[in-house]
Amino acid sequence: MKRFLLTLPLLALPIAACTPAEQNAALGAVGGAAVGAAVSSDADREKGAIVGAVVGVAASQLLGPAPQTGKCYYRDQYGNRFIADCR
Q1: What distance in Å separates the CA atoms of residue 86 and residue 8, rounded to the nearest whole number?
Q2: Cα separation, 14 vs 20, whole angstroms
Q3: What are 53-59's contacts with CB under 8 Å, separation 24+?
Q4: Half-sphere exposure of residue 5: CA atoms within 13 angstroms, side-chain side
Q5: CB count, 10 Å around CB of 64?
Q6: At what angle do helices 45-62 and 20-39 cross, to 10 degrees?
Q7: What is the pTM of this model?
Q8: Which whole-number Å values give the CA distances from 6 to 50, 60, 72, 87, in the listed order?
Q9: pLDDT-based confidence at 67, cuts 50/70/90?
Q10: What percent of the chain is modeled with pLDDT above 90?
Q11: Residue 63, CB-side half-sphere exposure with 13 Å CA sphere
Q12: Angle, vertex CA 36, rays to CA 35 and CA 38, nearest 5
Protein backbone atom coordinates (compact mmCIF):
# COMPACT_ATOMS: atom_id res chain seq x y z
CA MET A 1 0.00 0.00 0.00
CA LYS A 2 2.89 2.37 0.74
CA ARG A 3 4.31 1.93 -2.75
CA PHE A 4 0.95 2.72 -4.29
CA LEU A 5 0.65 5.91 -2.26
CA LEU A 6 4.20 6.91 -3.21
CA THR A 7 3.55 6.37 -6.92
CA LEU A 8 0.20 8.16 -6.91
CA PRO A 9 1.77 11.61 -7.56
CA LEU A 10 3.58 10.17 -10.58
CA LEU A 11 0.25 9.20 -12.10
CA ALA A 12 -0.90 12.82 -11.89
CA LEU A 13 2.21 14.07 -13.71
CA PRO A 14 0.84 13.61 -17.25
CA ILE A 15 -2.29 15.57 -16.34
CA ALA A 16 -0.24 18.46 -14.93
CA ALA A 17 1.81 18.93 -18.12
CA CYS A 18 0.74 21.92 -20.20
CA THR A 19 0.92 20.99 -23.87
CA PRO A 20 -0.06 17.70 -25.50
CA ALA A 21 3.60 17.05 -26.33
CA GLU A 22 4.55 17.49 -22.68
CA GLN A 23 1.65 15.26 -21.63
CA ASN A 24 2.81 12.55 -24.04
CA ALA A 25 6.39 12.84 -22.78
CA ALA A 26 5.30 12.61 -19.15
CA LEU A 27 3.04 9.65 -19.85
CA GLY A 28 5.84 7.95 -21.81
CA ALA A 29 8.27 8.51 -18.93
CA VAL A 30 5.88 7.14 -16.30
CA GLY A 31 4.87 4.16 -18.41
CA GLY A 32 8.44 3.41 -19.45
CA ALA A 33 9.67 3.60 -15.87
CA ALA A 34 6.93 1.23 -14.74
CA VAL A 35 7.74 -1.29 -17.45
CA GLY A 36 11.49 -0.92 -16.92
CA ALA A 37 11.16 -1.53 -13.19
CA ALA A 38 8.81 -4.47 -13.73
CA VAL A 39 11.12 -6.35 -16.10
CA SER A 40 14.34 -5.67 -14.16
CA SER A 41 15.81 -7.87 -11.47
CA ASP A 42 15.53 -6.82 -7.83
CA ALA A 43 19.14 -5.61 -7.78
CA ASP A 44 18.73 -3.40 -10.87
CA ARG A 45 15.19 -2.12 -10.41
CA GLU A 46 16.22 1.55 -10.21
CA LYS A 47 18.42 1.31 -13.29
CA GLY A 48 15.62 -0.44 -15.17
CA ALA A 49 13.19 2.32 -14.23
CA ILE A 50 15.60 5.04 -15.40
CA VAL A 51 16.29 3.31 -18.71
CA GLY A 52 12.58 2.64 -19.17
CA ALA A 53 11.74 6.30 -18.54
CA VAL A 54 14.29 7.48 -21.09
CA VAL A 55 13.04 5.01 -23.69
CA GLY A 56 9.44 5.95 -22.92
CA VAL A 57 10.09 9.66 -23.48
CA ALA A 58 11.97 8.98 -26.72
CA ALA A 59 9.22 6.70 -27.99
CA SER A 60 6.49 9.18 -27.09
CA GLN A 61 8.22 11.89 -29.09
CA LEU A 62 9.05 9.70 -32.09
CA LEU A 63 5.76 7.82 -32.26
CA GLY A 64 3.45 10.43 -30.78
CA PRO A 65 0.26 11.78 -32.26
CA ALA A 66 0.31 13.54 -35.61
CA PRO A 67 -0.06 17.33 -35.73
CA GLN A 68 -3.56 17.18 -37.24
CA THR A 69 -6.62 16.28 -35.19
CA GLY A 70 -7.91 12.80 -36.00
CA LYS A 71 -4.66 11.79 -37.72
CA CYS A 72 -2.01 9.37 -36.46
CA TYR A 73 1.49 8.33 -37.46
CA TYR A 74 1.88 4.82 -38.86
CA ARG A 75 4.77 2.79 -40.31
CA ASP A 76 4.54 0.51 -43.32
CA GLN A 77 6.37 -2.80 -43.78
CA TYR A 78 9.43 -0.92 -45.11
CA GLY A 79 9.73 1.34 -42.06
CA ASN A 80 8.41 4.46 -43.80
CA ARG A 81 6.37 6.72 -41.57
CA PHE A 82 3.09 8.21 -42.87
CA ILE A 83 0.04 10.04 -41.52
CA ALA A 84 -3.47 8.60 -41.93
CA ASP A 85 -6.83 8.64 -40.15
CA CYS A 86 -6.66 7.14 -36.66
CA ARG A 87 -8.26 3.73 -36.29
Answers
A1: 31
A2: 9
A3: 53/29, 56/27, 56/28, 56/29, 56/30, 56/31, 56/32, 57/25, 57/28, 57/29, 57/32, 58/28, 59/28, 59/32
A4: 2
A5: 17
A6: 150
A7: 0.57
A8: 17, 24, 34, 35
A9: low
A10: 0
A11: 12
A12: 60
The pLDDT of residue 5 is 47
Q: Pick from 25, 82, 81: which is nearest to 55 by CA? A: 25
Q: Are 87 and 70 in contact (CB under 8 A)?
A: no
**Per-residue pLDDT tens over the stretch 21-56:** 677 788 888 888 888 888 888 888 888 888 988 888
* Cβ-proximal residues to 79 (8 Å cutoff; 6+ apart), any chain: none
